[in-house]
Design brief:
By secondary structure, the protein is mostly helical. The chain has 2 domains: 37 residues, no CATH class; 162 residues, Na+/H+ antiporter like fold. Helices cover 80% and strands 0% of the residues. It is built from 11 helices and no strands. The radius of gyration is 18 Å and the shape is globular.
Length: 211
């Protein structure tokens, strides 16, 4: 499994393109499968997010505010510009396709998660700051995603904000809490070598489950 994860890290971009194409082809020929696979979505998201949560020290979120200008820019882009722009594009290009319109709005309303850290690393950017912004965005998203979807997507479908909050709790809050508890437990037990080894596995494992 570790060798597979290393291979995926090395060939990330072509593999992502391949699996996107395969997913589109599969969805085109077997559209009815979407309803059968839907119950597995929360579990898949949990498996994807939990390793990332173990690697995040949420106590360091406050340190991000030392660079408060960058934090404000990131939050404005994530939770104002992105969803409004997505809704505008949906209205122009997808007004007759409500399912696609809602999908585009949802894509704009949901901030990037773990893979943005990987992309930042590949671009030789500030991975530490990205990690903190990702953690902060996940916390803010718990409130903003249901709000934006209720405001922007109701023109196409009926949005159940309560159900959305419940789903976010399952796929974001629970992995967040369990990941932080796992990290604190490992640190408290003073198993630093084990902890660092686990983080190494998690960093390799995350691209595997994302693909």
């Amino acid at each position: 499994m570790l060798e597979i994860a290393k291979f995926i890290n090395k060939k990330m971009i072509p593999l992502l393109m391949l699996f996107i194409i395969l997913g589109m082809v599969f969805g085109y020929f077997f559209p009815a499968m979407s309803s059968q696979l839907q119950p597995f979505v929360p579990l898949s998201l949990f498996i994807m997010l939990y390793p990332m949560m173990v690697g995040i020290r949420f106590g360091e979120v406050k340190k991000a505010f030392l660079q408060w200008k960058l934090v404000i820019v990131a939050m404005v882009l994530n939770f104002l510009v992105s969803p409004v722009l997505a809704a505008w594009l949906a209205k122009i290009f997808l007004a007759s396709q409500p399912d696609f319109a809602v999908g585009l709005i949802l894509t704009g309303a949901v901030p990037c998660a773990g893979m943005i850290i990987a992309w930042t690393g590949m671009a030789k950017g500030n991975s530490a700051f990205t990690l903190v912004i990702t953690a902060l965005s996940l916390l803010v998203a718990i409130v903003f995603i249901p709000v934006w979807m209720s405001l922007l997507a109701n023109a196409y479908v009926i949005v159940n904000a309560g159900q959305m909050v419940k789903n976010i709790f399952i796929v974001v809050v629970i992995p967040l809490v369990l990941g932080n508890l796992t990290r604190e437990w490992l640190v408290k037990k003073k198993v630093q070598k084990v902890f660092k080894k686990l983080l190494g596995y998690f960093q390799l494992y995350q691209p595997l489950v994302c693909i």
